[in-house]
Amino acid sequence: MNMPRVTLEVLQAIRRSRKPVSKAELVRLTNYSLATITEHTEILLRNHLALESDRGPSTGGRKPQLLSFNAEAGYIAAIDLESTHAGVGITDLNCNILISESSNDIDVAAGPAAVLEQIKDLVLALLRNKGIERSQVKGIGMGLPGPVEYSRGLPASLSIMPGWDRYPIREFWAQHFECPLYVDNNVHTMALGEQMLEQDSKVDNLIFLKIGNGIGAGIICNGHIYRGSTECAGNVGHINIGHDFLCYCGNRGCLEALAGGRAIAARAEQMARDGQSELLAAILAEKKKLTLADVRKAVEESDPVAVELMREGGTAIGNVLASLVNFFNPALVLIGGGVSQVGDVLLASIRQAVYQRSLPLTTRNLSIQHSLLGEQAGIVGAAVLTFNEIMHMPFVNRELTFTYK
Amino acid sequence: MNMPRVTLEVLQAIRRSRKPVSKAELVRLTNYSLATITEHTEILLRNHLALESDRGPSTGGRKPQLLSFNAEAGYIAAIDLESTHAGVGITDLNCNILISESSNDIDVAAGPAAVLEQIKDLVLALLRNKGIERSQVKGIGMGLPGPVEYSRGLPASLSIMPGWDRYPIREFWAQHFECPLYVDNNVHTMALGEQMLEQDSKVDNLIFLKIGNGIGAGIICNGHIYRGSTECAGNVGHINIGHDFLCYCGNRGCLEALAGGRAIAARAEQMARDGQSELLAAILAEKKKLTLADVRKAVEESDPVAVELMREGGTAIGNVLASLVNFFNPALVLIGGGVSQVGDVLLASIRQAVYQRSLPLTTRNLSIQHSLLGEQAGIVGAAVLTFNEIMHMPFVNRELTFTYK
Question: Which of A204, A234, A361 is opposite residue B327, by nearest beta carbon?
């Protein structure tokens, strides 16, 4: 049977409070009666999901029992896969990273079998390092750089990841771990990670915009990740902005064909060849090919051509975002991904375009910021995704320390 | 106290099933135990919200008691106000219209006091006609043609409705009725009305696009109306599409300044003056001013200039919608409002643009259709809004036949 909804609500109330709480406080937080709270906290204690803390200050009689969430009742393996690198972390059930490592010798083009083997070895090494048994891992979360059919855990149409299309990633992990695996587009996991940080400010509607080689949006709507009717919401990289560059999707005019990392590097290289920037030409002569890192270096040295490229990208992104802001009316827009780290001109241009093109009523309380978690967003988010799921799973026939009793 | 959540869930299960259900069926529909179902159906029967129907077929023992929703336990007054006309209806609690009337001598520019008085008289006349007492009206729902601060029931920044800004509409109705009043942007109410019709097809994510003088979107997200963080989501009429026409909002380039009804009429008039269409010029000579109705007439007579105007509007709307579809990934887009009724060329152009500019993955299951309810969407939707709200209200200190006992 599932963990009863009331038990789950009480557990979430204990977890969210972040400090030990009394049953009286839980009554206030949940609106359940003291008898109900007592019944369900006992279930949680019996299943080691809650712990009794030191007793709190007395308000007359016996000091009240204080309860806290047992974040070490299990662990989560969280994976953030990008096309050329991967971040892997082990977190507790509060999604705090206990240990993590980043690997730069990943090449998704090597195909899923080889890459998953590499990542599994990384996970096992981290577990050994922290003295955590495989059986203590209660869930594995994995973010991929492209669309995923979330309900079935299958990658979908990953043009930049040949060989991954519909690859049975769950089956791979099932050979090595007995816990469930969740796979999602890493724009979604990142949005979940950022949202966790925003819990106290009660931001229910946010857009996380990842600007890497591709451009995608993770949408938090009424407090929950929003995936859309065929699970491909947030696919903003192919919104047509009316230019003539060909995109790998086959269309011309896609946002990411102008403002994505690979597009910016390609345009910088063209401008270097055309002799428009001495600095970029010098780097190109040395390296034979320009990358986003080279553009970043040129921006840091105030090369006007590189700065203008970033400004142009920011304006294009900002114009698209202005439409989405008018439509979705979020309280917060967070900008992340590799391109967002290339100086401040991108964010400034995005802000300028959004505030110019959106209705004042819509942007009155809108905040547009850099990602709060930065490079950790993907790992934290994969853990948040996993935690949210395992808390709603059936509680029998799984080897969990907190098998529901 | 509020109606307990479980009672409400049982009530919704009875109501949604649309035909009499047995307690055994309710157990299956809600996952509650038979004891729980019995407890709560008794509450509903006592409060006249459920009725006992004829007993169903026996499966061996005594024939089971069948329950149905008492849609006439109360009535809803539903109002759809536009800038030049209003629709008013009385519905039962299933939001079926029992009687309605449309008034064309409304002028919102006359100010809220006069207009509300006119509408109130209409409501009272309809009630008299059906022999319904004021006290039997359990809620009033009202849609306005512009942004509304929903939680406070106050119109916000209605540039096309001078004098309405923050007018206390609730206080007006409280002088005449003892039931609660809900005010919302009528794009939202229309979306709710359409969604009710779609209940069986389980469309959880839809965009209702109202193309009148203004252009706005009502968003149903995960089955619920989505209002955004400052309650102005769906404000798509002012999305910048890069033209030079001045919009009443003060910006240039707004979608509705090209594709809204007033804009189309103004452009048709200009083209008539410029001698581009003999038909339009003839109508203008006769009438001194062109309206959308005149453009409609010209489209019906296959005037190429008028058809081209509608095609241009449809393409502009479709291009914006393509971006929103990539972002939001809805299952259904419904097109309503006065402009949508001007022939089929608009819908065809919208579809063409969306399917051309959105990702195939996103449009695989997307359907783009004319509004199902047509001119009744606003009235039905105002009733749906009201029903949803009163079912969640505290049940004391209100004169309801179903005061919670």
Answer: A234
Q: Report A:348-377 residues touching B (Cβ under 8 A).
A: 357-359, 361-362, 364-366
Domain A202-371, second-level architecture? 2-Layer Sandwich (3.30)
Over its length of 405 residues, how does chain A's per-residue pLDDT go in tens digits? 356 778 888 998 998 888 899 999 999 998 888 998 999 999 889 888 899 986 656 666 667 789 999 999 999 999 999 888 899 999 999 999 999 999 888 888 888 999 999 999 999 999 999 999 999 999 999 999 888 889 888 888 656 677 888 899 999 999 999 999 999 999 999 999 999 887 767 789 999 999 998 999 999 999 899 999 999 899 999 999 988 888 888 889 999 999 999 999 999 999 999 999 999 999 999 999 999 999 999 999 999 999 999 999 999 999 999 999 999 999 999 999 989 989 889 999 999 999 999 988 889 889 999 998 988 999 999 999 999 898 876 443 233 444 444
CB contact under 8 A, A240 and B364: no
DSSP symbol at A248: T
Quick check: B232 and A157 CB within 8 A? no
CB contact under 8 A, A331 and B230: yes
The residue in chain B having the minimum alpha-carbon distance to the alpha carbon of residue A205 is B229
Task: Return the number of CB contacts < 8 Å for A and B.
Answer: 140
Domain covering A75-192+378-390 in this structure, CATH number: 3.30.420.40
Residue spans in chain B of domains classed CATH 3.30.420.40: 75-192+378-390, 202-371
